[in-house]
Amino acid sequence: MEATAPTPPLHDTCVTDMNAPTFDADWQRRAFGVAVALSEFGHYPWDAFQQRLIDAIGAWETASATEQGSWQYYEHWLAALERVLVDHDLVAEDEMRALLGA
């Protein structure tokens, strides 16, 4: 009988799917991993990321229908990650704008 490798544990705050989060694209998996890893290595508290995610989703919810576009959870995740990186001086605001082409 062939042994299977155990599934690595998820971050304690990941409660949406206790088996494993799912991703539609590799960039989503990477954004998820970066956000979790940076928090676990002490660059920011997880609740700071969570609050930025709540803020990003809230901004989408309150935007007009023409500004909203379609619901894309990991777009909000990425927006939260971008903000928390700036908030905690991991990336300068002007560098983030340059990276985003704004």
UniProtKB/TrEMBL annotation:
Pfam name, any one: NHase_beta_N
Domain Nitrile hydratase beta subunit-like N-terminal: 18-98
Domain of life: Bacteria
Alphabetized InterPro entries for the sequence: CN_hydtase_beta-like_N, CN_hydtase_beta_C, Elect_transpt_acc-like_dom_sf, Nitrile_Hydratase_acc_put
Entry-linked SUPFAM superfamilies: Electron transport accessory proteins
Name assigned to this protein: Nitrile hydratase accessory protein
Organism: Streptomyces cellulosae
